């Protein structure tokens, strides 16, 4: 008996690997099992050149996520939807601002540099790894160009057997995106859907001090600092200290000083809530020889930060044509136009999100009818001097227009019986215009004057194309020998062209450089290419035993003298269920294993490192800060010995089911060892050259276990309850490195992280810093410790403490920012026409860091800046009437002489959390309505995303899924002044006829 698997148009339905099967065939009464092919509406996973991964002969490790999860989603990019739905996949976001870059890792991190993201392939077009390509925007996620509503399904490939055909670019895993198509001999169908949602912060525990609290803290700070500890004079009461603070640190010309009508900077900068709207349409159908689909969508989001916006118009089409029974053609084309308004980001004072954290509530937005741009003269080191976030949002800005084309054409020709030729040409083109402007009076950049503005204009063209051609032989002998052999080649070409112009001397608000006194321009033209030859052989005997082998030879232009590498994989599976001796308790049982060696070039998909194998010269220039020196120097020494990273992948798995597959399990153990990992090599200082260059110097091992459970506990004519649960365990360890330890010091840049390091035998990115020992509860005269002092453990043994940080040693923490455990749980309840579904995700056993801790609690370093309320209520003080001798934060002193605010394990929090990722309640009108109206589908629903977040660490006040960038693992787990992750409540309608 064959049972079709109906894909629901509503709810959340997740398919994992072999779970695309609705039901196994019945057993026959003979000794041998029925090997009849099961009917399924979900097609095989299609790789390059027409090569497929058939779920009925599953060898590799992969999961499939259905289209129901992508339709009318409030998320701006595809990668956000995968969070929590795939075992072994970990997601983190650099910002809740739509269009910002994200980080996805599959089975850990396998390289020491470059993005850890997987390779994305859309309808056969290799589109890269979602790397940030922005010139002016804080970040840009190219995947935001893709309309999620146009997606039929997404396949996540994990092991060597599944990814080897993508060679060097598939070492981090591969995510295949298949867009929707029409069907042959199908009546024309029309579909329309719309969704409107309201958004706010998903996890908001960063509570700033109010004006009264700010003033009270200022008084306590003065009391703590009296008598030569920052202030020469002394006070008799806390009121005297508070008045001293009011007189000396609040400007007299601030009207708030007397009115106490405090400024709530968060409300001034952010909308109370943001709104997201999506509109989608599609028409599809087909005749005997031609099928088609044309669709489009409009996605509009007004994010939380005022003046920001994201508008995307997308059009997609797919045409398939049978010229004959032997010759077929296909066309897929996706176009999107995005207009994005955003703001200054990073740890710059011009970032409005930063300013809301730090600005004093005693500072007014306006003064004398104009924007208040006055400096804070009492503190020469005050970074916020002159920066008014409201005026910056209104009179400066960043606006980008991105036009993206992703298209492919393919041909499949059976030129002789059992012999086929497949050709696919794919193209991705992105045209980006980014503009940045500021009117006079906004000194956002160093070197600006009060009477001139600034203007920047960047034009970027990114063009990627790939052409693959494959010959194949496919035949079944005697009904039991299934042979498939493939041989092919693929060519990839990637180019990046950027023209950048900037001026700090604009004399007119019109954005044209003819109004500038001086314009600085620069341009970049980068390219890299790869050519590959590949082969694959699949053999299945009697629908029981499958053997799959593949080999690929890649040549890549970014490497040194050894540009070519040979990579391979072999996998096997055994369908035990079709054996006569299979235990009767099972309704399906397959064992599988694979091993392969893949190559990798971690920086190939990021622009700027394409010529690391060659010595390059740089012309001396001080863009924006002075003239040209007129001389050149070595900017990169190059390394002609650069070669492929090589990753050996072992995967052992089992898929089995019970009760006619109403309860199914899929389990995988993996062990991946990457050798010759590329990282920095350090020449001797005596050479006089650059301090570092890239070389193959490290080994990294990733081990883990994954499990997927699908269950249908209840199923009858009126009610169905289905469950999908996925979980994974994994760790990444550095086994070899060319130095004993490498630290990522460097202050506030995205490529730095003061808290993490690399060393042999330690977790990749393990925290390595000073160990915070808390606050001294009493005086310790023998060690010159006073009650209220901040303390550090002297070393990793944690047996002694000191209040002098320089007397303490850094130590390994034993944790990193990558969760050891990831889980996802999806439930769907369907009663007649009503469906309720929800997805819960969780991440456990990892630490995250507050990259702005030194500002949110600065222990008195910046008396003119605001802080979180904890600085007032949980800091040690003996101020009369405000005594607190049992606090977690040390005694605040002017200028923070102990530097307790700077990096240490005090910055770290447990990131363990559970999140209600999505919940959806839908009602579909029944047959009576359909027959009366002719409408084949009318569904209304309400949905929520990121509804609830439970953090196990009660002191965690920032989102545990944060990262400061997506182009390197170094920023993983770091909250970095970003727009928060968003919670959405929405209402939608789906109509089909």
Q: What are the salient characteristics of this protein?
A:
single chain; 993 residues; mainly beta; 22-stranded antiparallel β-barrel; six-stranded mixed beta sheet; 11 helices; 47 strands
Task: Describe this structure as you would to a colleague.
The model is unreliable at 1-43 (pLDDT under 50). The protein contains eleven helices and 47 strands. The strands form nine sheets. The protein has a 22-stranded antiparallel β-barrel. The protein has 993 residues and is mainly beta.
Topology:
Elements: E1 14-15, E2 45-46, E3 52-53, E4 62-66, H1 78-81, E5 89-93, E6 102-106, E7 119-122, E8 125-128, E9 151-157, H2 160-163, E10 174-179, E11 186-201, H3 211-224, H4 238-249, H5 256-259, H6 265-269, E12 274-286, E13 290-302, E14 309-322, E15 327-342, H7 352-358, E16 366-367, E17 370-371, H8 389-395, E18 396-416, E19 419-438, E20 453-477, E21 481-506, E22 520-541, E23 545-556, E24 564-575, E25 586-600, E26 616-619, E27 632-636, E28 645-658, E29 663-681, E30 693-715, E31 719-736, E32 742-744, E33 753-758, E34 762-763, E35 766-769, E36 772-775, E37 790-793, E38 801-802, E39 811-812, E40 821-831, E41 834-844, E42 847-850, H9 853-856, H10 870-873, E43 908-910, E44 913-924, H11 927-933, E45 937-951, E46 974-975, E47 982-992
Parallel strand pairs: 7-10, 42-46
Antiparallel strand pairs: 1-4, 2-3, 4-9, 5-6, 7-8, 9-10, 11-12, 11-47, 12-13, 13-14, 14-15, 15-18, 16-17, 18-19, 19-20, 20-21, 21-22, 22-23, 23-24, 24-25, 25-28, 26-27, 28-29, 29-30, 30-31, 31-34, 31-40, 32-33, 33-35, 35-39, 36-37, 37-38, 40-41, 41-44, 42-43, 44-45, 45-47
Helix pairs in contact: 3-4, 7-8
């Amino acid at each position: 008996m064959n049972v079709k698997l109906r894909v629901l148009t509503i709810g959340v339905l997740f398919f994992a690997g072999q779970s695309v099967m609705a039901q196994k065939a019945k057993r026959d009464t003979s000794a041998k099992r029925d090997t009849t092919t099961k009917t399924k509406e979900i097609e095989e996973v299609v790789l390059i050149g027409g090569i497929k991964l058939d779920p009925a002969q599953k060898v590799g490790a992969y999961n499939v996520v259905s289209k129901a999860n992508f339709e009318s989603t409030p998320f701006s990019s595809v990668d956000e939807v995968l969070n929590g739905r795939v075992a072994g996949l970990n997601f983190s976001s650099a910002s809740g601002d739509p269009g910002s870059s994200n980080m996805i890792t599959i089975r850990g991190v396998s390289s020491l540099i470059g993005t850890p993201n997987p390779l994305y392939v859309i309808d056969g077009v290799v589109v890269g790894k979602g790397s940030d390509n922005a010139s002016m925007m804080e970040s840009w996620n190219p995947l935001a160009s893709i309309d999620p509503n146009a997606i039929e399904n997404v396949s996540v490939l994990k092991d060597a057997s599944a990814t080897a055909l993508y060679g060097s670019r598939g070492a981090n895993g591969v995510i295949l995106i298949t867009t929707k198509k029409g069907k042959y001999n199908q009546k024309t169908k029309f579909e329309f859907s719309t969704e409107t949602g309201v958004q706010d912060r998903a996890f908001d525990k960063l509570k700033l001090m109010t004006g009264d609290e700010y003033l009270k803290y200022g008084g306590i700070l003065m009391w703590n600092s009296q008598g030569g500890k920052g202030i020469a004079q002394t006070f008799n009461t806390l009121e005297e200290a508070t008045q001293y603070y009011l007189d000396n640190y609040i400007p007299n010309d601030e009207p708030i000083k007397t009115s106490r009508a405090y400024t709530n900077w968060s409300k001034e900068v952010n909308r109370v809530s943001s709104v997201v709207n999506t509109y989608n349409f599609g028409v599809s159908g087909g005749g005997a020889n031609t099928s088609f689909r044309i669709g489009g969508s409009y996605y509009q989001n007004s994010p939380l930060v005022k003046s920001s916006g994201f508008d995307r118009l997308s059009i997609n089409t797919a045409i398939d044509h049978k010229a004959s029974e032997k010759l077929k053609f296909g066309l897929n084309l996706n176009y999107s136009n995005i207009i994005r308004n955003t703001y200054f980001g990073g740890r710059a004072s011009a970032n409005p999100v930063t300013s809301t954290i730090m600005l004093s509530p005693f500072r007014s937005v306006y003064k004398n009818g104009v924007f208040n741009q006055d400096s804070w003269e009492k503190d020469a080191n005050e970074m916020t001097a002159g920066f008014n976030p409201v005026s910056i949002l209104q009179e400066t800005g960043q606006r980008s227009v991105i036009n993206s084309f992703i298209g492919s054409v393919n041909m499949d020709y059976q030129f002789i019986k059992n012999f086929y030729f497949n050709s696919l040409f794919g193209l991705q083109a992105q045209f980006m215009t980014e503009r940045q402007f500021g009117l006079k009076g906004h000194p956002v950049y160093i070197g600006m004057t009060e009477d001139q503005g600034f203007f920047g204009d960047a034009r970027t063209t990114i063009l990627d194309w790939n052409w693959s051609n494959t010959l194949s032989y496919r035949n079944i002998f005697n009904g039991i020998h299934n042979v498939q052999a493939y041989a092919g080649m693929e060519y990839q070409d990637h180019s990046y062209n950027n023209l950048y112009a900037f001026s700090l001397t604009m004399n007119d608000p019109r954005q044209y450089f003819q109004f500038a006194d001086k314009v600085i321009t620069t341009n970049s033209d980068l390219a890299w290419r790869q050519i590959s030859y590949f082969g694959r052989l699949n053999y299945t005997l009697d629908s029981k035993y499958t053997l799959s082998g593949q080999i690929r030879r890649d040549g890549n232009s970014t490497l040194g003298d050894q540009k070519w590498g040979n990579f391979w994989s072999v996998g096997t599976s055994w369908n035990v269920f079709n054996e006569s001796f299979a235990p009767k308790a099972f309704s399906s049982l397959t064992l599988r294993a694979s091993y392969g060696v893949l190559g990798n070039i971690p920086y190939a998909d990021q622009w700027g490192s394409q010529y690391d194998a060659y010595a390059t010269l740089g012309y001396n220039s001080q863009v924006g800060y002075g003239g040209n020196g007129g001389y050149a120097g070595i900017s990169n020494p190059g390394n002609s010995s650069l070669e492929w990273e090589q990753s050996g992948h072992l995967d052992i798995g089992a898929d089995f089911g019970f009760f006619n597959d109403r309860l199914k399990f899929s389990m995988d153990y993996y062990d991946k060892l990457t050798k010759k990992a590329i990282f920095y090599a350090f020449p001797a200082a005596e050479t006089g050259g650059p301090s570092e260059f890239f070389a193959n110097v490290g080994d990294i091992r990733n081990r883990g276990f994954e499990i997927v459970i699908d269950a249908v506990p209840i199923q009858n004519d009126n009610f169905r309850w289905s469950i999908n649960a996925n979980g994974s365990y994994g760790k990444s360890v550095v086994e070899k490195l060319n130095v004993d330890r490498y630290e990522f010091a460097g202050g506030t840049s995205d490529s730095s992280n003061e808290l993490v390091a690399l060393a042999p035998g330690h977790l990749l990115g393990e925290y390595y810093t000073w160990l915070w020992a808390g606050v001294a509860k009493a005086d310790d005269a023998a060690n010159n410790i006073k009650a209220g002092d901040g303390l550090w453990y002297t070393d990793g043994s944690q047996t002694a403490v000191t209040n002098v940080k320089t007397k303490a040693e850094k130590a390994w923490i034993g944790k990193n920012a990558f969760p050891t455990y990831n889980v996802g749980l999806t439930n769907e309840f369907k009663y007649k026409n009503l469906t309720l579904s929800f997805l819960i995700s969780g991440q456990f056993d990892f630490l995250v860091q507050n990259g702005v801790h030194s500002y949110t609690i600065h222990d008195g370093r910046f008396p003119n800046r605001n802080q979180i309320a904890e600085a007032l209520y949980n800091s040690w003080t003996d101020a009369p009437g405000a005594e607190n001798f049992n606090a977690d934060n040390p005694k605040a002193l002017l200028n923070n002489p102990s530097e307790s605010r700077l990096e240490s394990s005090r910055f770290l929090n447990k990131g363990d959390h559970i999140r209600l990722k999505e919940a959806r309640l839908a009602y579909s009108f029944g047959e009576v309505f359909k027959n009366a109206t002719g409408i084949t589908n009318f569904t209304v629903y309400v949905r929520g995303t990121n509804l609830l977040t439970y953090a196990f660490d009660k002191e965690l006040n920032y989102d545990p899924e944060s990262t400061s960038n997506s182009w390197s693992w170094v920023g993983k787990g770091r909250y970095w002044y970003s727009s928060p992750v968003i919670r959405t409540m929405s209402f939608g309608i789906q109509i089909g006829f």
